[in-house]
Write a structure and sequence with these properties.
This protein is α/β, with parallel strands linked by helices. Helices cover 35% and strands 29% of the residues. It contains twelve helices and 22 strands. The strands form four sheets. Strands 6, 7, 14, 15, 16, 17, 18, 19 and 22 form a nine-stranded mixed beta sheet that branches. A six-stranded mixed beta sheet has the order 9-3-2-13-21-20, covered by helices on one side. Strands 1-12-11-10 form a four-stranded mixed beta sheet. The longest helix is centred in the last third of the chain and has 29 residues. The radius of gyration is 21 Å and the shape is globular. The protein binds flavin-adenine dinucleotide. The site of flavin-adenine dinucleotide has 33 residues, from α1, β4, β14 and α9.
Length: 407
């Protein structure tokens, strides 16, 4: 039977990052993922991009991932937030964030998920203490006082003092360990498309709040942007069924003309949107990380950043325990991780949910109230800087990796 210090079920962006952090700290880690790497790197696998906060970029730099990713990442220099209705003039109140105001080169970076994964795979391949097994589906887990054993679908087993589930929203292991979720589905879907435009975006990201939900335009490398278009679940099928010309027409109605002519470079993608938070993040010999522990609305582009913070915090807690000669799989050790991450995840999940509810409607008094809010925050320098630090991930207790230090 294979032995490791930590077995990670799920080699998504969170599982791979956790594996790297643990291996860099001297642990022997094994990651099992159900999907082969080649399939995940195929451009047809995932149309999404991620906004990486600068705290996440610092972590990826320490882990040796950023070097491979930087050429594919677009710095966000400014963010413009407006409230409006498609086809109508935007409200005169808007919110403008500028990296220069906080003395930063960028407010974050946008990268395609496939490039983030490719850079992670590169770092994993170069890591001595880390093994990625894929395709390998984790079937079940057995644990007792002394350790845990993970059973893979091909019948093989891996033993370790600790198993981490980083296997996404539908986590099999979370269910098997009897950890329940609090949550609900949004009556919205996230439509994602890559768009080419005539004029350069100059690193400006836009968030238009439309009645059906936020419409984000995120700058990518070159004259390209990624749309994350939150649309009413009932209206989305008709939009997705449009032919190329029809879809481009709907797109430019919402996009506006500031970047010249816009054309979607391929068919749009659609993702169901839900909110969920696990009631517990740990059990003896078991911990949750990433979307397996929490799922939030993409309105603020923070889901992955939240998961990367889990990875950084868990690695730090486990390494500290090991340095003191403690067992890394006992509840005492793991509760430190849960206390650190559960409240932070809840706070972000609840605020993104509230933001989505406040802005995804066309109710006049609410519109006036939120426009007033945008105007007030825009007029007050410290408030603007507070939100910029928040978007950059520099809030709450930061794990060492997110400060740019070794775990
Ligand atoms: C429309 C949209 C836009 C978004 N935009 C942003 C953004 O701009 N910024 C941001 O920070 N976040 C964003 N997010 C959120 C972000 O995409 C997720 O939070 C992130 O991908 C979660 O990563 P993960 O590794 O936890 O889970 P996943 O990516 O779901 O990975 C789980 C992995 O586990 C594997 N797996 C599952 N079951 C098993 C099993 N039984 N055995 C072995 N392996 C298994 C899967 O193959 C997969 O590789 C967005 C989300 C959506 C829907």
């Amino acid at each position: 039977m294979k032995q490791a210090d930590v077995v990670i079920s799920g080699g998504g962006m969170v599982g791979l990052t956790l594996g790297l952090a643990l291996a860099q700290g001297g642990f022997k880690a094994v990651i099992a993922d159900a999907v082969p790497a080649a399939a995940i790197l195929d451009p047809k696998f995932d149309g999404r991009v991620s906004a990486l906060a600068y705290a996440s970029v610092r972590m990826l730099t320490v882990l040796g991932v950023w070097e491979g990713l930087a050429p594919y990442a677009q710095p966000i220099r400014e963010i413009l937030v407006t409230d409006g209705v498609a086809g109508r003039t935007a409200s005169p109140f808007s919110l403008h964030f500028d990296a220069q105001e906080v003395g930063a080169e960028a407010l974050g970076h946008i990268a395609e998920n496939r490039h983030i994964r490719a850079a992670l795979y590169g770092a994993v391949a170069a890591s001595k203490n880390l093994e990625l097994i894929a395709p390998a589906t984790v079937k079940s887990i057995k644990s007792d006082g002394g350790g845990a054993v993970v059973l893979l679908e091909d019948g093989s087993e891996i033993a370790a003092p600790l198993v981490v589930a980083a296997d996404g929203r539908e986590s099999r292991l979370r269910n098997e360990m009897g950890i329940n979720l609090v949550g609900w589905s949004y009556p919205q879907v996230g439509i994602v498309a890559t768009v080419e435009h005539e004029k350069p975006h100059n690193g400006v990201a836009y968030e238009h709040f439309l009645p059906s939900g936020p419409f984000a335009i995120l700058p990518m490398t070159g004259n390209r942007s990624s749309l994350v278009w939150t649309e009413d679940k009932k209206k989305a099928p008709a939009l997705l069924a449009l032919d190329e010309a029809g879809f481009n027409e709907e797109l430019s109605r919402r996009f506006g003309s500031h970047l010249g002519k816009t054309t979607a470079t391929g068919p749009p993608w659609s993702y169901p949107l839900s909110f969920h938070l696990a009631r517990d993040f740990v059990r003896p010999r078991f911990a949750l990380a990433g979307d397996c522990a929490h799922g939030i609305h993409p309105i603020a582009g923070q889901g992955l950043n939240l998961g990367l913070k889990d990875a950084a915090a868990l690695a730090e807690v486990l390494l500290d325990a090991a340095r003191l000669g403690r067992d890394i799989g006992v509840l005492d050790t793991l509760k430190r991780y849960e206390r650190w991450r559960r409240f932070d995840s809840f706070a972000l999940a609840a605020s993104t949910d509230a933001l989505n509810r406040l802005f995804s409607n066309d109710i006049a008094p609410l519109r006036h109230l939120r426009d007033l809010g945008l105007g007030i925050v825009d007029a007050i320098g410290p408030a603007r800087r507070f939100f910029m630090r928040h978007a950059g991930g520099d809030m709450g207790k930061l794990p060492r990796l997110m400060k740019g230090e070794a775990a």
